[in-house]
Predict the 3D structure of the following.
Amino acid sequence: MSVAPTPSNESARLDALRALHILDTSPEERFDRLTRLARRLFGVPIAVVSLVDANRQWFKSCVGLAASETSRDVSFCAHAILGDEILLVPDTLSDERFRDNPFVIDEPNIRFYAGCPLRVANGSKVGTLCLIDVKPRELDAEERALLRDLAHMAEQELMAVQLATLDDLTLLSNRRGFEVLAQHALNVCKRMNKSASLLFFDLNDFKQINDTQGHAEGDRALRIFADVLRAALRESDVIGRLGGDEFVALLTGADSAETHEVTRRLAQLLDARNAQARSAEARAYQIRFSVGQASYDPARHGVIAELLAAADAAMYSHKQASKARTAQRG
């Protein structure tokens, strides 16, 4: 058996795959419809929308197989994403790469495979739409064109998923995207007994920026804060904009001290950005924030919405306390 080599753009490819926020999500009719259609049109027992992760291939949709994922080492699709065209294996027993693959010599006894790579916006190939049969066969030119058409439909659905989970203004996850990704991260923390903290941010006096400087400047302030959030947090943290001037960040594997360090670093970076804007642009306002923190407790926070509510309440208390201090000084 031949293990597929790693694509030259693997890091960027994985970034593009994970930016979809689709791994380990629930079944969706729009993908299941495609695999059912592919199985019927080609008369094969198995059709799959497969996404190739770092160490596994995960099935967004699969008809004809009970499995939801397999190891990448034995994946046919890991070979398919190396090329630009359909990977066609008419008879696996005649192909040195696959003849002793465990899925060939044992269940589901693959004898035929055809996988068309699925590309996302930056050109990365994140997976395939593939056909599997238990007997050898070929695809003629018309059938190959049909498989490419179905794969293009799957690509369009992947693009729709990405658009539905991204905030257009800041390019952070929107509420839907954040909740999907954060819930997955919490599940991992629970399974591995790791700590997690949720930070809930609200920009101070944001309405005043919109009212006095205009909505275009308000949008610019939101983009600046999103940029500073990205710089202050780790690559493994999940960041999102819930809407308006509310932002959130889930820090996995972080205790209270590490979480406090993140907020301190964020405040420093934002101060530096404000000072730079004051000198270079003569900006008439400063971007400030209130923040609430909630530590993940598996006994109290079964779903991400419960942790969000706790962090939101903490943020509100922080904001009210800051207003009270300002009033006393006034």
About this structure: The chain is about 45% helix and 20% strand. The two ends are 75 Å apart (CA to CA).
